[in-house]
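Form 12-C: Joint structure prediction
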Amino acid sequence: MITGAEAIVRCLENEGVEVIFGYPGATIAPFYDKLSKSSIRHILVRHEQNAAHEASGYARIKKKPGVCVSTSGPGAMNLLTGIAAAFMDSIPMVAFTGQVNSELLGRDVFQEADITGAAESFTKYSYLVKRAEELPRIIKEAFHIASTGRPGPVLIDVPVNVQNQKLDFRIPESVELRGYKPTIKGHAGQIKRVCKAISAAERPVICVGGGVFASDCQKELRRFVETLNIPVVCTMMGLGAIPTDHPLNMGMVGMHGKSIANQAISDSDLLIIIGARVSDRAVLLPANVGHNTKIVHIDIDPAEIGKNLSTSIPVVGDAKEVLLQIMDAEPASKSRLWTEQLQAKKQSLVPDYAPRKSGINPKAFVHMLSSSMPEDGIYCADVGQNQIWSAANCEIRSGRFLTSGGMGTMGYSIPAAIGAKIAAPDRTVVAVCGDGAFQMNMMELGTICQHGVDVKVVVMCNGKLGLVKEIQKKSYKNNEIAVDLSGSPDIMAIAGAYGIPSRRLDRMDEAEEAISEMLAHKGPYLMVCVVDENESSV
Amino acid sequence: MKHVLTALVHNQPGVVSRVSGLFRRRGYNIDSFVGSSTEDERFSRLTIVVQGDDNVIAQVISQLQKLEDIITIEDIDEKNLISKVLLIIKVKADLRDRVGIIVVANACNARVIEMNSEYMILEALDTEERISEIIEIFRPYGIIELVKTGVVAMKR
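Section 2 - Result
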């Protein structure tokens, strides 16, 4: 007989969990007591929201569910933003929250919060554990649900008395979920239709999203694209699925994407969407997607197909499986002229990398930084103008581009970088954020120092909330309000307070040397880049 | 257009909340929502009447199917549908009206279940359209109160 708390630890070990990100409290204390005896590494964060973001960065690189833990009440509520961000981007995650004594539930006791109710819209599933003997089944189910089908966060709320209850510990052999059976293989008839459509198309385009990474099929995608010689575009979540400098890669689509990518979609006669949900940022006006465009939508989530874009040929299944099925059927493609036309147009585009009168050129900087990182480097972007500069100018070869795409949560970059580095200690990890987002997550510099996490942080400082200022300029007759960040601290002094070396960069001709110094340094490093407040995002 | 969806779900606390929460979150229009246990205590059955065109209903069903608690869900076609609504209605009835009300009740298959010098309580079990008609039939007498269930339905 062991306690519920001990059972949770053993189940986590059984699931192969090596790291958890968390913040303790009264109602999760029994769990923490048992955790101390385990080989599982605990990363103490400085704000629970970042525990979820760190678990998210970790999960995206490790390809296993990230685990985060908090106490009840405010701790659980703080986790919620991070959980919602993971939900929007379909990141596998299991979140444990302590809860008040189950006999006191509903009486508004100290640090009580209905987290399962609050998280309902943002979790794939959630559990409120009533009896300790349910824990092994629940935890096994939770990991299964989080990591299969369309991945997502699962929440397990464990009252403190349940953690102390004794149970006869037995891990179930398998998971039995009658209502949950994701489809992995594509329907043979639909695959045939896709092949026919490819063979008939003269102007095909492939659009890839985050699903390619969830399915881990970058290799198969590349083979598919190259064999058929079809141009590829991507959503923000799909950046890096094909190397950015690949001759068939036309770039990111959408509101802040490349015009050639958007044009490719509207001029196409066949649009093959793989693992993307085409939200309003990717396709602003779904009704305008070429009237003569046939749409093939390959996704593991049947509810996404037809949700935003009406689809001619839906294929429900795992991206890797479906791509292999299609390639097995050996479709032919006659789109050579179309591809060459797009490639010619792409060559003719000149990026805006000229030096600036004041401050650096952030677009040129992002390009230089990402090109200087090792091939498999991990670039963590935040939200706002810096995200748009990053998405448009990042060079990704075999590395990753991590950002909060769906929820656009400011403050994601530094904790995501921490999680990514812990998942892949041998890879270079850089977080790039603005001075607004930095002040939302700078407390994690403490986590970086405590656990010796070697991430490089670049803060683009323009003294403003840049993207909102741009919106106010464009749509509100330049009526600036609440976007001025005066009163912000000297960021280098903040880094110094944490014992992290830093430097300031305010001109492009010093950029190459500054980037070298930062990347060569062993240990965390912070660079403050001065950017003019009138620099626009595109 | 109205669609009658019938779903077999796990009989567990929170399931109704999850399903109705999904409707709220996605903005679908619920006409009625009925849930109760079945012959197998592990499962409950939900009957949900939703307003929407074919696209909306396809989305509703896809989103519902994603929920772990939902085992099966079906949109029952008009011609295969058996559906009933239960009505309990309290009608003003002084001594003079009583006989008239009883005759009318018999004519529309409603049963008298309660009677006193001020009112009568009638119950009727019929299709949704007939129940609406029955309510209008009794309206001239003066309806004090009425309560009706949502639609329960079964495929033939």
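Section 3 - Comments
The mean pLDDT of chain A is 94. The domain at 188-347 of chain A is CATH 3.40.50.1220 (Rossmann fold).
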